[in-house]
Amino acid sequence: MITQVTNGIKISVETSFEGTFFKNYKMHYAFGYTISIENQTNASVQLITRHWDIFDALKDIETVDGEGVIGKKPVILPGKTHSYSSGCLLASPIGAMKGFYTLIELVSGETFEAEVPTFKFAAPFAMN
């Protein structure tokens, strides 16, 4: 598990290799990840946007920006954690992701970023 704390928001990531499959005559490598976002501040916050840089050993870096996570904009109370699972398809058996969430402190209305540490993807057969 990889963990990082930014501005009182602790983000932990676990990854898994889900398998391979052919699509459009190309091999794809499926990876899963579970992210836990713990609010270690004294204020309620809401996750409003996400930013990802996706690294694939066989492709250029892909950038993804969007609202919330998996269709939700969770409110995270002080001392509470929001967890979710998602996935990523790569053209190679090795890659990584990093990014950040933009959150809003609900009482003050101030926005801030919480960094998501770089987490790596590696199919077991690709590692020595």
UniProtKB/TrEMBL annotation:
InterPro entries found in the cross-reference section: ApaG_domain, ApaG_sf
Top-rank lineage group of the source organism: Bacteria
Every ApaG domain range: 3-128
Biological-process GO terms, alphabetical: error-free translesion synthesis
PANTHER family given in the database record: F-BOX ONLY PROTEIN 3 (PTHR14289), POLYMERASE DELTA-INTERACTING PROTEIN 2 (PTHR14289:SF16)
Protein name: Co2+/Mg2+ efflux protein ApaG
Organism: Croceivirga radicis
